[in-house]
Design a protein that fits this description.
Layout: H1 26-40, E1 44-48, H2 54-61, E2 66-71, H3 74-87, E3 93-97, H4 100-106, E4 112-117, H5 123-136, E5 139-150, E6 161-169, E7 172-179
Parallel strand pairs: 1-2, 1-4, 2-3, 4-5
Antiparallel strand pairs: 5-7, 6-7
Amino acid sequence: MRVISGIARGTSLFPPHGEKTRPTSDFVKENLFNIIMDDVRGTNFLDLFAGSGAIGIEALSRGAIHATFVDISQKCVDLTKRNLEKTRLKEKATVMKGDAASTIKKLAGQKFDIIFLDPPYDESLANKTLQKIYNGDIMEEEGYIILEMDRSVDTPKIDGLITFKEREYSSTKLVFLEKAQGEII
């Protein structure tokens, strides 16, 4: 695991240990950032189910002005903090411990340009979290959500959100969602 591009390029990240954390592969991460590269600079980025923090750190390295990292595991929170220290990006970051649903409530009043979520490959958790994001009104009007999920699972359908792009890589699927036209939240 490493930072692929930007000011922290080439920095190795401390990897998560254990069976419960499934880090995004460098291949998928590189493809993800090739897709969103023109959108990242100057954004407020939210990394839900952050694990090691690799996705949010990549966004910071590529010019996001701030990233918020959320994970329920204290080990992952500590790991994200270590990786932010190592990459010298901690001043641009907020790291929060908690489950996604309750943390989204705590983020009320904040707006994010890009929200990335990589929940455990459990369809109901992805659906529940997407609904909380929509209901929580934490996404900028022109913002969007990126959901990393198992390729074999159907893409979630959430009222008020539409899928505008999908990409598949081996067993992984990236789903890009935005507010449906005319939706005011």
